[in-house]
Design a protein that fits this description.
Number of domains: 1
CATH architecture: 2-Layer Sandwich
Helix content: 25-40%
CATH class: Alpha Beta
Strand order of the largest sheet: 1-2-3-5-4
Shape: globular
Number of strands: 5
Distance between the termini: 21 Å
Structural class: alpha+beta
Number of helices: 3
Strand content: 15-25%
Order of helices and strands: HEEEHEEH
Length: about 140
């Protein structure tokens, strides 16, 4: 993170925002670990504190969306989810970040959003080793 653009009251300026998978000069990818029912939940977080996608210049917007696309492609290839959810809300944390979430027809909330009401109990979740392997594959794909 760039100290000149960091905001002391912003949680995404203060820390990584999840389990760090990869950091580049522009952005970082983390796996979100505070929602255990959704283990294939990643965030792409812009390193500099900006609130909106339109705060980026054209090259930065392209780099951001290419990375989001790379995450989505790998999750689709490796996990074969029913759907990938992409979201850039920022209502609670106004720091540019994208949620990339693999969704499965039998997950606890599907087809509701993960922040909505559960429809069934949480099912079988992947082992920690499988998630670490997914993180590693993601870091390799995005580093190319």
């Amino acid at each position: 993170m760039n100290p000149q653009t960091a905001q002391t009251d912003c949680p995404l300026c203060r820390d990584d925002g999840g389990l760090l998978v990869l950091r580049t000069p522009l952005w970082r990818v983390v796996r979100v670990t505070d929602t255990p029912a959704f283990p294939a939940f990643y965030r792409l977080i812009w390193n500099h504190h900006v609130a909106e996608f339109s705060d980026l210049d054209a090259a930065q917007r392209l780099a951001c969306m290419e990375a989001v696309t790379g995450i989505e492609r790998l999750l689709r290839e490796r996990l074969r989810p029913a759907k990938i959810n992409l979201a850039s809300l920022g209502n609670v944390v106004p720091h540019l970040h994208w949620h990339v979430i693999a969704r499965f027809a039998d997950d606890s909330h599907f087809p509701n959003p993960i922040w909505g009401e559960a429809r069934r109990p949480v099912g079988v979740l992947p082992a920690a080793e499988a998630l670490l392997a997914l993180d590693e594959a993601l870091a390799n794909v995005l580093s190319q």
